[in-house]
Amino acid sequence: MSSVVEDPERPGPKAAESLARQIEAEIIARGWPVGELLGIEADLLVRYGVSRPVLREAVRLLEHHMVATTRRGTGGGLRVTAPDSSAVASAAALYLDYRGVRISQLYAARATLESRCVELTTARLDEVGIARLRGTVDAISGMDVVTLLDHAHDLEGAIAELSGDPVLTLFVEVLLRLAHQHLTPPEERLEHAEAIERMRRAQLAIADAVLAGDTETARIRLNRYLEAAAKAYRRQVRARRGARSAEVASPKGERRSGSRQGRGAAQSPRVAYEEPVR
Length: 278
Description:
There is one protein chain. This protein is mainly α. It folds into two domains: about 10-80, Winged helix-like DNA-binding domain superfamily/Winged helix DNA-binding domain (Arc Repressor Mutant, subunit A), CATH 1.10.10; about 85-275, Four Helix Bundle (Hemerythrin (Met), subunit A). The chain has helices at about 10-30, 40-50, 50-65, 85-100, 105-125, 125-140, 145-150, 155-160, 165-180, 195-210, 215-245, 260-265, 270-275, and strands spanning about 35-40, 70, 75-80. β2 (about 70) and β3 form a beta hairpin. α8 runs antiparallel to α9 (about 165-180).
């Protein structure tokens, strides 16, 4: 096995990154044997021919990437671990939020990916999947509106998982987490109880179509639901923008004409449509 050559003119992190990539490649080549012991620190130092600081930094990177984990003491060592999709999805959602993803982009992507998930799930739904979906439906049906919004995307997440496509499942999870980051806060939800109830009915209608094996109806209901959700999201953005404008109003109640908020409040629906999700 090749060792990582440490360049005396370069700091340790460069060698550590190289070693981490090498170990990751080895794990992938071996079929990702979760739980397998890669070795204890003394063995790994000899195997890769690196210093202890470089190895420990490489191990830190592997743990950060959720490729392997280490434990000291008896029975310890570096072991292969299974990556956590939720951590990956959270990081990706935060990145998209930082990039200022727009409402139109978010919901267009959701419509495309979730429609495909509906098709796959409806076609391959078995008894286990039916039980999973019915359990989600029962949970959604019994929640009060405040709690329900915390689970606003449970049904879509379940349909994505039941599609059997890990790529679609991950991408949908990313988009759902991005949307979830901007839900109405709990203290304001009772004011929107009627809209939340409409969301519940729309989701249950989608689930009914999937359980009935009616792909076309499920897809139509999904797209209508997402269109309504996008419109509600835009109204929320406008309201938030209007509240910011009011905060910067002059003492006499006149808006500051030069402020970004003041201009935004008078923008056309097309511009509001292109507002970032935050």
